Amino acid sequence: MQLRLWAAIVIFAGSYFPLSLILLAQDFEYKYLSQEFCVEIFTQPGRCTLPFSNPKISLSIFVFCLLSLLATLLIFRLTKAKRKIEVIKAKYVPTELMNYTLPYVVSFMGVGYSEQSKFVGMIVFLFWIFWITYKSGQLIMNPILIVLDWRLYDVTFKHDGESLEHDCLVLADSELNAGDEVRYGAIQDVMVVRKERRKGGDS
């Protein structure tokens, strides 16, 4: 499945949910912890002060990344598993997902919304990272998937009824082993396999 641009943006934003959470925490005004909670925040929000230096931008980006992450999981669920393959070899590559976005998350931990020039520079940098990963077909490599029990495999496989072997990266939500027969959907250049599998050639 070739992603449309809007879907690619959503998936990319979802992968940076940890960064939005870090920036939200850095924007928090901890002096408000000593004050009483404003109970009118939902009924009379004008009487309350949000405990952030830049509440509009920090909360907006956080909510957008959170919704994008949820939308990413929905896209995975809606990916149709049409074709069947037999796994010949499956190599689990646990650190590969971490290598795609986590280094960028860590590198921006010192950036805040109050530092305008650095924030604009971060946006420009993230735009280029988005465009590169979108064009390379590796956009769905999201380290948050590790927390949700997804695994990345380097798989050698053959299609049902064929003898020619192929190699591909496979995202699976459970363990993959040689001899498994699975159905898959594809998002860009990556196969997506869910828990619809049977052993030893059963159909």
Question: Could you explain how this protein is built, in words?
Answer:
The chain is of the alpha+beta class and 203 residues long. Helices cover 40% and strands 21% of the residues. It has a five-stranded mixed beta barrel with strand order 1-2-3-5-4. The model is unreliable at 197-203 (pLDDT under 50). Keywords: Membrane, Transmembrane, Transmembrane helix. The chain crosses the membrane at residues 5-25, 57-76, 97-113.
Keywords for this structure?
203 residues; alpha+beta; 6 helices; 6 strands; 40% helix; disordered C terminus
Largest sheet: 5 strands, mixed, barrel
| Beta-strand residue percentage | 15-25%
Question: What is Rg?
Answer: 21 Å
Number of helices: 6
Kindly state the number of beta strands. 6
Order of helices and strands: HHHEHHHEEEEE
Mean pLDDT: 81
Backbone structural class: alpha+beta
State the strand order across the main sheet.
1-2-3-5-4
Poorly predicted tracts of residues: 197-203
Distance between the termini: 25 Å
Blueprint of the fold:
Layout: H1 5-15, H2 17-27, H3 55-78, E1 83-92, H4 98-107, H5 116-136, H6 144-147, E2 151-159, E3 165-172, E4 180-187, E5 190-193, E6 197-199
Parallel strand pairs: 3-5
Antiparallel strand pairs: 1-2, 1-4, 2-3, 4-5, 4-6
